[in-house]
Design goal:
Blueprint: E1 2-5, H1 12-17, E2 23-26, H2 43-47, E3 56-60, H3 65-76, E4 80-85, H4 88-102, E5 107-111, H5 117-129, E6 136-139, H6 157-172, H7 174-179, E7 183-188, H8 211-233, E8 238-244, E9 247-248, H9 259-264, E10 281-282, H10 284-287, H11 289-296, E11 308-309, E12 312-313, H12 324-343
Parallel strand pairs: 3-4, 3-6, 4-5, 6-7, 7-8, 8-11, 9-10
Antiparallel strand pairs: 1-2, 11-12
Helix pairs in contact: 3-4, 5-6, 6-8, 8-12
Length: 344
């Protein structure tokens, strides 16, 4: 079971909102460390010694934040990197910076809006037409705690963007990944998955919408998808890794959360500055380290399909996230949802 230690007694719904700043204590046997890396290590640290020349990687949400840092580190090791994001202008700026700082010219921008399955299909068609291999896919992009909205395909925006967009992207590229094996798929989730499992009876939260609970559902979905993907394809040389990058203050992920809410959670001081007494915050290079560890480090492969946190094995925060049956059910549901959208 999971116990949430938040800063005050609250209702069940409000407690979930505090899952991002509370301590999560899991009452189960401790996981034995499998890695020499720690929370403080950076993406450059975990990629040291990697030679990615001849490898092709796609990173979603790579125009800024940890996605850009993941793309930079992969490029610094010689990979051909596709920097995918919803703004081609921001993509190009990121590409220019990565080329300049790494000296690797095999970095290119690509338009990908994950809240549009039409855009996802167009991106996949564009990439497959290039006849390139694909060795690393980091499903990094995401939105968090937004007011209720629907994607252009009619899905609750966090589930549609964080999960369904990446589900469709990955499944459209599966044959390419298998043909390029060994290949890895990294699913960037969050400890926020502990807030909620899959809302099977109302996947789009048509009633009782709570932005943090819906975010938790989408992050649980990221974990279930990676685990089921690994179960299906590891025997063919394609392994998958769900992971939590950490709490990174410098990204724009929390743009939709008012300062007052951050203050109520204890993340900001009364003057609006970051509460640096909280020791779990990471820098962008540190936040990119666990996804990069999963993407390139040889030791990660021994635990493919398991949940990673702080460059090591992590602990799941709700029962749904570890359920094999839930993973199969979500895969089937997701297939049906994206198929229906194609016919609409």
């Amino acid at each position: 079971s999971v116990v949430f230690h938040s800063f005050a007694q609250q209702s069940a719904t409000k407690s979930a909102r505090h899952c991002f700043c509370c301590r999560i204590v899991v009452i189960s046997p401790p996981i034995m460390s499998s890695s020499k890396f720690q929370k403080e290590n950076t993406a450059d640290d975990v990629a040291a010694g990697s030679d990615l020349k001849g490898k092709v990687a796609i990173v979603t949400g790579a125009s800024n934040g940890i996605g850009k840092e993941e793309a930079r580190v992969l490029a610094s090791k010689g990979a051909h990197v596709i920097v995918a994001a919803r703004s081609l202008e921001r993509c190009q700026a990121a590409v220019d910076d990565i080329r300049r700082t790494t000296g690797n010219q095999l970095v290119e921008p690509a338009l990908l809006a994950l809240d549009s399955l039409k855009s996802v299909r167009a991106f996949a068609d564009w990439f497959l037409a290039r006849n390139l291999p694909l060795h690393i896919l980091i499903n990094n992009a995401g939105i968090m705690a937004v007011p209720r909205a629907l994607t252009e395909d009619g899905f609750e925006s966090q589930f549609g963007t964080n999960h369904l967009g990446h589900f469709l992207l990955t499944t459209l590229l599966l044959d390419k990944l298998v043909a390029s094996a060994p290949a890895r798929v990294v699913s960037v989730s969050s400890s926020g998955h502990a807030a909620h499992g899959i809302n099977w009876d109302d996947i789009n939260w048509t009633t009782g919408y709570d932005k943090f609970l819906a975010y938790g559902q989408s992050k649980t979905a990221n974990i279930l998808f990676a685990r089921e993907l690994n179960a299906r394809l590891a025997s063919k040389g394609v392994t998958a890794y769900p992971c939590h990058p950490g709490a990174i203050a410098e990204t724009g992920l929390g743009n939709h959360i008012p300062k007052e809410e951050f203050m109520a959670m204890g993340l900001l001081n009364p003057d609006g500055t970051l509460n640096t007494s909280l020791m779990f915050f990471k820098t962008i290079p540190q936040g990119a380290s666990t996804p990069i560890y999963c993407a390139v480090h040889p030791d990660a492969e021994r635990h493919a399909g398991e949940y990673f946190d702080n460059n090591d094995l992590g602990q799941l925060g709700n029962p749904d996230a570890g359920s094999v049956e839930a993973g199969k059910r979500l895969w089937e549901l997701s297939e049906n949802l994206v198929a229906a959208s194609a016919k609409a």
